[in-house]
Amino acid sequence: MKIKHSLIVPCYNEEGNVEKFLEKTKDAMKNYTEDYEIIFVNDGSRDETPVKLRKLFNENKDIKIKVVNFSRNFGKEAAMYAGFTQAVGDYVTIIDADLQQDPGYAVQMGKILDENPDCDMVAAFQEKRKEGKFITACKTMFYKTINKVTEVDFIADASDFRTMRQSVVKTILALPEYHRFSKGIFSWVGYNTISIPYEVKERESGETKWNFGKLLKYALDGIIAYTDMPLKVPMYAGVLMGALSVLQFIIFFFVDVFTSASIELGYIASLILLVGAIVCVFMGIMGYYIGKIHTQVKERPIFIAKEILSYEKD
Fold it and tell me: What is the rounded CA–CA span in Å between residue 93 and residue 86?
């Protein structure tokens, strides 16, 4: 069956949004193509999302719908990967279910691919962020940092909201890593990419799944996944600490700076604590890398599908 456009929709506790998402998508796609499919990936939701998705699947036979229900929560990265395994469209779009990303932009990105045969992917970026100043500053710092320490170019403020050709999807599926950082994968695979701005809408229902802690972990995962620079920092720190120890030796034995033994001992104690703290930090960094390797070598599946509903099986 020939499908022009596949839409992958990761869902986690989106019971109040999936029905509205379907209606808005139908409105957006009706003037573009009838040959499209919607792939809802339920990422272990704890609300009525799986019930709502089964209802949509059973009551909308005029629309090509697939539903993948995970056995538990595996995360958005796994949900996107699962969607890729199911998508058969010439074009594949990743879009959130909360309607902050208007399905109309998926149509716009599809048309860009229609008009530009040399373009392989269209990435949407937030022209104007609506988060607080602190979160915005942190994200800006993240993109500046990761672009300096990696060999891959990351599009600033780009989201997972993008449309790509099936050839790009097949390349992504060939990458076997368990700890996936899709923004890095999209950049790493290359291909010709066009960026377009989009306006983030207000959530139709529910609350955001992201907080500062999750964003920080996500940023660390991205840096760890695409650079080994943190592993090299201890070497530079060792050189610095060696230079400081030589300087300390000179001060202690050739310059009469300290006026009392207590000041000298306090200085030494502080220096020992500083060195200990630095060593612990670097051991933690190396442990983080080793932990990722430990998980990868187990070769566990990226996701487990408890149930797959598909129009192809009807």
Answer: 12
Characterize the bridge pairing of strands 121-126 and 193-198: parallel
| Diameter over CA atoms, the chain | 88
What's the pLDDT score for residue 208?
A: 55
| Assigned CATH topology for domain 5-209+301-313 | Spore Coat Polysaccharide Biosynthesis Protein SpsA; Chain A (3.90.550)
Torsion of CA 226, 232, 157, 295, to 10 degrees: 40
List all residues 6 or more positions away from 162 whose beta carbon is below 8 Å from its beta carbon: 93, 94, 109, 121, 122, 123, 124, 186
Q: Report whether 268 contacts 28 (CB < 8 A).
A: no
CA–CA gap between residue 76 and residue 73 (Å, rounded): 9
Distances (CA, A) of 296 to 79, 178, 185, 216, 286: 18, 6, 16, 21, 15
The answer, yes or no, to whether residue 302 has pLDDT greater than 60, is yes
Note the pLDDT of residue 116: 92
Overall pTM > 0.85: no
What are 177-192's pLDDT values in tens digits? Answer: 777 777 778 877 888 8
pLDDT for residue 95 is more than 70: yes
Residue spans of the domains in the chain: they are: 5-209+301-313, 229-297
